[in-house]
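Extended Data, panel c. Modelled sequence:
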Amino acid sequence: GGRIVLPLATLEAFASVQCQLRDAGLAVHSLQAQISRGCPVGGHTRLQPLNPVLIVSGRSPHPHPATN
């Protein structure tokens, strides 16, 4: 079997890709990653949030047998 992993920026793309992967018979997993960048403020460091990234992966539920 194989795996596909897609980083996405919009909720609409996230929903569409999830449906397409499920329709293709793949097992779908999803997560949201949030990253922040350190920025100086008054001699200290604060975290400036960046836009979240939505990550969808699809995997064949049945691995293909190895070929010789």
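Residues 13 and 49 are 22 Å apart (CA to CA). This feature is highlighted in the accompanying rendering.
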